[in-house]
Amino acid sequence: MEQRKAAAAQKIYSRVLGDIRPSKLEVESTIANANRTMARLKKIVPKGVTLVVAGSIARSTNLKGDHDIDIFMLFDKKVSHKNLEKMGIEYAKRMVDKKSGERFELKYAQHPYARLHLDKIDMKIDVVPAYKIDNIEELATAVDRTPLHTKFINKHFTDKMRDDVRLLKYLLKGHGIYGAEVKVQGFSGYLCELLIYNFGSFNNLLESAVNFKMPLCISPKDKAAKADKQTFEKFGSDFVVIDPVDSNRNVAAGVSKESLARFAFIANKFLQNPDIKIFYGEGFSSSQISKRIESIVKSSGLDLYLMVISVPDKSEDIVWPQLRKASEIIDTQIKKFGFRTYLGHVWIERKKGFIAYLAPRESLPTRVFQGPSVFYGTKSVEGFLNSHKHALAITVEQDRINAIDSNKYPTIGALLKDVASGKVIGKRKDISFKGGKLFVNKIPREYAETAYFEIHGKMRV
Fold first, then answer.
1. What fold characterizes domain 286-363+409-459?
2. Range with the lowest mean pLDDT among 20-34, 282-296, 381-395?
3. Using H for helix, E for strand and C for coil, what is the string for the chain?
């Protein structure tokens, strides 16, 4: 990175950090609230249960305004898994003071845990039962690792590295790729910390990301890439970041190829032209976003399609993959009938599933259906001809027999109308298209703000 651009980048980092680093008062307030919460829990849990604070608060990598706390109840390994779950939830429930407006919510990871909403002090506290372990060989549940993660980061991190993690988190957040949740398929907080640790600084990470080549393996423990075939086969992924406290875990398992590619693209864009807008965005209002997309649709010869279906009130880990799979099936159908899309996006909002497409405005009342090679045998050729008895023409191109025949769906809109009514896919596991709705170019007010925001986010990098 040339000197002039490097100086500009450093100025931007300092400016952004001034906005996103928690103030001394905020840190002290968060610590005080954490201590008070821990004291309340200590009065409830037996002496054999150890309480520890984990997550970004414990590692001092949290962003300004992010003062939610993760508290781990660490049980002795003699306690059965069933009792660990039961007691963990029971102790958390007993801590809730309903008179003070506190609420309890049951959440799920590998096993259930409690989320406490302390509205009076504007905090959420996740209380997670786990086993107390000193090394990874004692691992009994996936969450047992978390206190070891905290120990590793706190042992190796400097204050500068903590600030660099904040820069990375804020950048990823602004581009919709922060968070390991299945709906985001992005970078977890712990992954951000490991990337900064591995590359030494935020700027070094950006410069390295520009040159990422797939498959990619990063090993923060020894800071050496182990790009052997066996590693990728072991984890079943082309992007592997080996957990320094557990060599059998890929910390980047939840990162989609698109999220990684977006990050590499953003890094290159910033390094080529350091601009604070990379962190803060263009600053479009919701009305500007809608007008911008409407203008693109109007002037480009493209149509905007939005399908809206009901989704079950189940865990996001269940519903999101099903909606994505359904969209892949629709994509296959679109290609099957000879159409193209320029953009596809899915999201879930208020128990509704949304699938959006930007596609060329085209009509294909007829198309070419490619048949088998003439040399495949009589049965194959006859079967194809029987399927196209009323074809406009039968041709032979090279060695293949083709049919110029009418298309079942003359437009992509006709196809998507049948998809939205359940005639093409119907039901897939928990996702049902029956009773769905299709909107073309004009999105109803009840969906417009979210829809335009989501589509704009997909178009903007």
1. Alpha-Beta Plaits (3.30.70)
2. 282-296
3. CCHHHHHHHHHHHHHHHHHHCCCHHHHHHHHHHHHHHHHHHHCCCCCCCEEEEEHHHHHCCCCCCCCCEEEEEEECCCCCHHHHHHHHHHHHHHHCCHHHCEEEEEEECCCEEEEEEEHHHCEEEEEEEEECCCCHHHCCCHHHHHHHHHHHHHHHCCHHHHHHHHHHHHHHHHCCCECCCCCCCCECHHHHHHHHHHHCCHHHHHHHHCCCCCCEEECCCCCCCCCCHHHHHHHCCCEEEEECCEEEEECCCCCCHHHHHHHHHHHHHHHHCCCCHHHHCCCCCHHHHHHHHHHHHHHHCEEEEEEEEECCCCCHHHHHHHHHHHHHHHHHHHHHCCCCCCEEEEEEECCEEEEEEEEECCECCEEEEEEEEHHHCHHHHHHHHHHCCCCCEEEEECCEEEEEEECCCCEHHHHHHHHHCCCCCCEECCEECCCCEEEECCCCHHHHHHHHHHHHHHHCC
**pLDDT tens digits, one per residue of 69-116:** 899 999 999 999 999 989 999 998 898 888 888 888 887 766 788 888
Homologous superfamily in CATH for domain 22-143: Beta Polymerase, domain 2 (3.30.460.10)
